[in-house]
Amino acid sequence: MMNTAQRLPVLMYHRVGEPDHKRDVYCIHPDRFAAHMRALNKNGYQAVSIEDFDAWRNGAKSLPQGAFVLTFDDGFTGVRDFAAPLLREMGWPATVFLVTGKLGGDSNWQVTVDEPMRPHPLMAQVQIRELIDHGFSLHSHSAQHHDLTKMDPAELLKDLLESREAITALSGRPATYLAYPYGRHDEKVRSLARQAGYVAAFTVESGFNRPEVDAFRIRRLDVFGTDTPAMLLRKIRLGSNDGRLTNLLRYYVQRLLETR
Ligand SMILES: [Zn+2]
């Protein structure tokens, strides 16, 4: 049992393509994305599907050490154009959280960071079907990419139901997982998500997940387009968005002190 995963990281990417500017952390260049995946592979990491993660969380399946879940928010076209061919070659599954009311359109929502993101094209149904053929899992990032905590309950429930039904119809498989837009959620959002038929939801709070994690507060690590492969490896080892070397050293010193 030594080699089975006790805690799982979930990685979160957004756009794959040409970054808008040097500090565009929510976009990763295809070459760097490939370098990330190769570095993970070389260091004993292995992507597992979100469905396997859920089975592991429920105690129905064990996963090997080094297992992690790969997710892409929003459904940008670069996921299909650049990430999918590489992942297929590696045999690695991944999940896209789709904004169902905007398929084939642009990401015309505000980013919460200081600089607004330029709109970029989102996959249409035909491209999404190709992803399904590539073995991707499709789940919900809501219908409109609103801050769910700011919606009135009836409107929110409608949005969540609509999105879940649209993806289920598109993929032919139940869309049971939700990624909160902007990572924003509260008691009301979590309870309505459950009511809308979701069984788990993904946040942007960092850390590892143990099987006893709150199903509606699954943690994810924010991987930036500016992260070098070494930075990514530190993030995934630490379960933290802070992959600076000093943080890694602090972590090892802490572990040494704990085991004395
Ligand atoms: Zn988003």
Automatic annotation (TrEMBL):
PROSITE patterns found in the cross-reference section: NODB
| Origin superkingdom | Bacteria
User: Which CDD domains does UniProt cross-reference here?
Assistant: CE4_NodB_like_5s_6s (cd10918)
Q: Which GO terms describe its molecular function?
A: hydrolase activity, acting on carbon-nitrogen (but not peptide) bonds
Q: Which residues form the NodB homology domain?
A: 66-260
**InterPro entries linked:** Glyco_hydro/deAcase_b/a-brl, NODB_dom, Polysacch_Deacetylase
Q: Which Gene3D superfamilies match?
A: Glycoside hydrolase/deacetylase
> Where in the cell is the protein located?
Secreted
Q: Its GO CC terms?
A: extracellular region
Query: Quick one: where is this thing mainly located?
Result: secreted
Per the record, the GO terms for biological process are: carbohydrate metabolic process
Keywords, sorted A to Z: Signal
| Family annotation (PANTHER family) | POLY-BETA-1,6-N-ACETYL-D-GLUCOSAMINE N-DEACETYLASE (PTHR34216:SF3), PTHR34216
Q: What is this protein called?
A: Polysaccharide deacetylase family protein
Q: What species was this sequence derived from?
A: Sulfuriferula multivorans
The opening ranks of the lineage are:
Bacteria, Pseudomonadati, Pseudomonadota, Betaproteobacteria, Nitrosomonadales
